[in-house]
Amino acid sequence: MGSISAGWGESLVWDDQQNRLYFVDCLTSTLHWLDQGDIEPHGFVLPSMPTGVVLTTTGDLVVVLDDGLYTCEPDDRTLDLLTRYPAGFEGRCNDASADLSGNIVTGKLNMGPAEGSSWQFSFSRGWTLLDPEISNTNGPAALDIDGRSTLIVGDTSAQYFAYDYDAEAATVGPRQVFGDTTDLAGHPDGTTVDAEGGLWCALVGGGQLARYTPDGLDSTVEVPATNPTDVTFGGAGLDHLYITTIGGDAEMDGALLVITGLEQTGRPEPRAHVN
Predict the structure, then answer these.
(1) pTM of the model
(2) Which of 13, 60, 143, 224 lies 20 to 30 A from 71 at CA?
(3) Within a domain: residue 40?
(4) CA 84 to CA 262: how far, in whole Å?
């Protein structure tokens, strides 16, 4: 899109109430946004690396930083601590999203296979451990599958996993592989859900996106960048698919990409319920 480029683009989310696209550049610790019609992004430099951005019911954001979750009002350039990471976490969180009940699902950041975990943060109950064996949490997403509340958690060192999910009790059932990337180039990264319940996944290192349904791999889409990191549907009709990428040697590495003309449209992004 135009001249927009990031060293390490991540954490795409479309705000359907403001017609605004948010994304971050991890390399410069900057939250960016584009209002509809903007050519150049606005920016807010944060005190540490942002790795997750979640919309809220009050119109501000929750941003994942080094020492905890923060509420952020981008236009005013304000930032307030919401919560530190739980005792014994020994690290920081990575990607994050709201579930369908307004809680936040996130988990540990590891750049390679290592001990990790995924968690739920509730504004009323605080932190609850969901899965103690997720090395690098990426692309969490909540959806209904055949009437069952389902949580997807991607592990960049493994696969995209699915769980039966009780958001109010903060419990999950046994995990199952939902998106098997074994035979595809790339590794699990950010996701978004379309209006039909399909899970769109950025496969970092693979130069492609993959769409999964409960029946398995549905389709793949090549992108002109080596490392796509996240995807989201946006635009007035939620019919544009935006993609962040990591900077590198290929021509489109680091660019913010957009695909139009897809058969699928997106769903409005779930929002965290702020007390």
Answers:
(1) 0.97
(2) 143
(3) yes
(4) 40
Whole-angstrom CA distances from 232 to 55, 139, 256 are 13, 11, 11
Tens-digit pLDDT profile for residues 227-267? 999 999 999 999 999 999 999 988 899 999 999 999 999 99
Whether 1 is in a domain gets the answer no
Max alpha carbon distance in the chain (Å)? Answer: 47
Contacts of 275 (CB under 8 A, 6+ apart): 123, 124
Residue pair 162/175 in contact (Cβ under 8 Å)? The answer is: yes
Residue 263 neighbours by CB under 8 Å, 6+ apart: none
What CATH number corresponds to the domain at position 120?
Answer: 2.120.10.30
Q: Are 222 and 208 in contact (CB under 8 A)?
A: yes
Is residue 96 included in any domain, yes or no? yes
The alpha-carbon radius of gyration of the chain (Å, integer) is: 17
The position carrying tokens 């993609």 is: 243
- Tally the domains of the chain: 1
Q: Which domain covers residue 110, as residue numbers? A: 9-259
For 163-218, the DSSP string reads EEEETTTTEE---EEEE--TTSSSEEEEEEEBTTS-EEEEEETTTEEEEEETTEEE
Q: How far is the C-alpha of 128 from the C-alpha of 86, rounded, in Å? A: 9
Q: How far apart are CA 214 and CA 178, in angstroms?
A: 7
Quote the CA–CA distance of 9 and 154 in Å, as a whole number.
18
In a domain, 273, yes or no: no
Are the beta carbons of 47 and 72 closer than 8 angstroms?
A: no
């971050």: which residue's tokens? 24
- Residue pair 91/74 in contact by the 8 Å Cβ criterion: no
For residues 268 and 238, the answer to whether their CB atoms sit within 8 Å is yes
Task: State pLDDT tens for residues 182-201.
Answer: 999 999 999 999 999 999 99
